[in-house]
Write a structure and sequence with these properties.
homodimer; alpha+beta; Alpha-Beta Plaits
Chain lengths: ~130, ~130
Amino acid sequence: MGASTRPALRPGVTPWCERTTSVVRMAALSGPRIRHSVAFALHHAEGSEEEAGFLDALRALANIPGVEAFEVVTEISPKNNYRHGVSMEFADRAAYDAYDAHPDHRSFVAQRWVPEVVDFLEIDFAATTQH
Amino acid sequence: MGASTRPALRPGVTPWCERTTSVVRMAALSGPRIRHSVAFALHHAEGSEEEAGFLDALRALANIPGVEAFEVVTEISPKNNYRHGVSMEFADRAAYDAYDAHPDHRSFVAQRWVPEVVDFLEIDFAATTQH
């Protein structure tokens, strides 16, 4: 794959390396960057309209300022009872805190998350300083 | 940042977008790709030599064939009791299964993981087919 297939970056344009998902691996965390993941299960039946509606509402959180690398995913491990996941990254703690306090996030948690989620676990990964 | 700062890809060379970690966001999952994350806590004291030795042994799992985007990280959420994490990606289920069955992985689990880990949770994320 030659350089000629990669367009130049322009402001607001998703870099090539993020769009060519089939060959690109996850970038490592570094500095103050935080990867926030939540695994969860819903009251709704699998494949139901209610499930789809919840996941669509969840996807709207990607529009909150500071949210990067946002993904709604499927949890496939047989070793836990979660069935869905959401993953996002923040440049630093301040960006994470601003997301947490954002009215759209607070509203989603109160109106959708609390009534529709059965169980969940939050995991926040940050770079480890090697010994 | 112009295209001129990005070298052409050559076989075996890590793409630019993976090396410039300070500005690169995690690439989204797609197709059969799986992101395997484990959050865990150790019996060892924080900052101890025993902890460092365990994490070094854990990092050696990155050498097992099929393991991609391997990271040992710190778990920083106050909402759970895990203190460390490890994250890796596999191209597909076959690569994941091969890793799981690899003698180096099995040996690490038996000799280090079982005796030294207090508690852990495995989460496997895969791309969601949107409704």
